[in-house]
Amino acid sequence: MPADGGTIKQLTFHTGKDEMENWGWDSKTIYFTSNRNNNFGSFKTTIEGKTPQKLFNNYFNNTNGLAEIPAGEYLFTSSSESANQVHRKRYKGENNPEILGYNPKNNSFRQYTKYEGKDFNPSVDKNGVIYFISDENNNEYNLYKIENGTKTALTQFDTSIKKPFVSANGSKVIFEKDYQLYVYDVAGKSTKLLNTSLNTNKTLKRTRISM
């Protein structure tokens, strides 16, 4: 849907579950997670709705939450705890999600986080700073960033947040908390409730015919 409003266009038509993750840096590519081939995996399509492409061809590559770094590296997690067990906080074990990176240009692999708990939902700004959620400090999902290889906590909420998305210029991060949308100001290190305005759904009045 256009940012200023308009007609909604359906982009995928598979009977499987398709969940949008992030935009590509060409502003034309959309990355999403789907269970159309196996348990779950990462795919991409275009704003025109072209045939989706699987990004990792091995059947057992169960990846999700994919985001693209401007230099071309793919960030993702590879765990059911980040794909379909998001509600299960405080999990610690061998299936904990870590933020991983794969560069298709040189076939290199990198691990960004090593916390035993849950690090997932990466989003990246134009400078390559990674924003994501983690339950490391207080067992609730809070906003974190990785800059120059260092993981830093940005919020300390006592209720969890969901799905952070950073603006391209890195100035704002939007996320869901307590069923509402909030915006985190990166420079000011402050959070405020997003002021939203939704149009009502106008319906036709029911017509009664007297016999």
List the helices and strands and how they pair.
Layout: E1 18-23, E2 29-34, E3 41-46, E4 53-54, E5 64-68, E6 74-77, H1 80-83, E7 100-103, E8 108-111, E9 119-124, E10 130-134, E11 142-147, E12 150-153, E13 161-166, E14 172-177, E15 180-185, E16 190-193
Antiparallel strand pairs: 1-2, 2-3, 3-4, 5-6, 6-7, 7-8, 9-10, 10-11, 11-12, 13-14, 14-15, 15-16
Note down, in words, how this protein is organized.
The protein has 211 residues and is mainly beta. Helices cover 2% and strands 38% of the residues. The chain contains one helix and 16 strands. The strands form four sheets. A four-stranded antiparallel sheet has the order 1-2-3-4, with no helix packed on it. Strands 5-6-7-8 form a four-stranded antiparallel sheet, with no helix packed on it. A four-stranded antiparallel sheet has the order 9-10-11-12, with no helix packed on it. Strand 10 (130-134) and strand 11 form a beta hairpin. The chain is globular and about 75 Å long.
- Helix and strand succession? EEEEEEHEEEEEEEEEE
Mean of all residue-level pLDDT scores: 92
| Strand residue percentage | 35-45%
* Adjacency order of strands in the biggest sheet: 1-2-3-4
Radius of gyration in whole Å, from Cα? 19 Å
- The global form is globular
Largest sheet features: 4 strands, antiparallel
Low-confidence stretches: none
Helix content: under 10%
Characteristic key phrases:
4-stranded antiparallel beta sheet
Q: What is the structure about, briefly put?
A:
This protein has one helix spanning 80-83, and strands spanning 18-23, 29-34, 41-46, 53-54, 64-68, 74-77, 100-103, 108-111, 119-124, 130-134, 142-147, 150-153, 161-166, 172-177, 180-185, 190-193.
